[in-house]
Amino acid sequence: MATLANYPDYSLYSNAFGFLRQPLVFQPQGCDADVIITGVPFDMATTGRSGSRMGPGAIRQASINLAWEGKRWPWEFSLTKEIKMADCGDLVFDCGDAAQMCERLEAHANSLLAEGKTLLTFGGDHFVTLPLLRAHAKQFGEMALVHFDAHTDTYDMGSQYDHGTMFYHAPNEGLIDPHSSIQIGIRTEHSHKLGYQVVDAATANDWTADQIIDAIKTRVGDRPVYLTFDIDCLDPAYAPGTGTPVCGGLSTDKILKVIRGLQGINLIGMDVVEVAPAYDHAELTSLAAATIATDLLHVWAANRKNSK
Questions:
Q1: What angle do CA 161, 165, 171 make, to 5 degrees?
Q2: C-alpha dihedral sign at 157, 269, 263, 171
């Protein structure tokens, strides 16, 4: 006979759930989780179509399709048995106050990193990465950046809050070393003046996944690595639900092979951004983002598992 004891307590009575149906912990400071998942519903820095403030909820919703696997193929361990995760919901800030969002997100990240926790963050537009880099640099010093995107986001024009300028400001603030950093999937105007290695989309599509993996690992070495994934790195055929789609991108198959091959890099923080569900079809983009995030968690867990 079925009894309540047969079921996880978070699955019966509430529609509220965290990423991969993990516990919602709204006060994550002091909890026993290894990884804290945070949504940042912010899209005021968008230059294309708005709507990525709805991204965190859409990614969580799509993750239901991934939560049933005890061991996610092709990984050989159960993620939830290897690490503890908690989803603290979405960052709260006054609507329309970009400065307050930056201040609160950086403070939130600072408090959790000081406890030795690792952060997985869902945007929102890509500008949310800048306050996260500021917090991580306080903990880890100058980092290498692994950046998947259709755009370099190294533009020096624009307002103080612009999702195309973060990786111009970050090296100027001493947060990342562009000479140890790499950008993959770029297919818009760019220059090499800041020192980033750029693997454009045409090259990345011609290369094998192993060639891309080798380029990343050679570039970052043993530096602490922050990985940021703008969903428009994927071709619009695989991710239509984003604010600035660009044709000629990478496939989900190649991206997942690359991410799974990044075991061994010193991964200290990660985000997935720019999912705009209003432009999505059949949750393709949200599912891609949730899958990428899940494999990033597996990479982090595999690193810790192998270091024991």
A1: 120
A2: positive
Across 6-16, average pLDDT: 45
Residue 31 burial (C-beta neighbours within 10 Å; 0-12, 13-18, 19+): middle
Angle value at C-alpha 226, between 61 and 229, nearest 5 degrees:
40
Between the alpha carbon of residue 195 and those of residues 183, 200, 231, 260, the distances in Å are: 11, 15, 23, 26
pLDDT band for 16, please (50, 70, 90 cuts).
low
Per DSSP, helices labelled H in the chain are 55-63, 79-82, 98-113, 129-140, 166-172, 201-206, 209-220, 252-260, 284-307
| Structure-token pair, residue 221 | 């070495």
Report which secondary-structure segment, H or E, holds 227.
strand 224-230
Q: Is 307 exposed, middle or buried (0-12, 13-18, 19+ CB in 10 A)?
A: exposed
pTM, rounded to two decimals? 0.93
Contact 84, 35 (CB under 8 A): yes
Concatenate the DSSP letters of all residues of 36-54 into one string.
EEEEE---TT-SS---GGG
User: Which string of DSSP letters, residue by residue, matches 83-137?
Assistant: S-EEEEEEPP--TT-HHHHHHHHHHHHHHHHTTT-EEEEEESSGGGHHHHHHHHH
- Residue 26: phi, psi to the nearest 5? -80, -10
Q: Which of 277, 270, 254 is nearest to 303 (CA)?
A: 270
Alpha-carbon distance 84 to 23, whole Å? 10
Q: Residue 120: beta bridge partners?
A: 37, 270
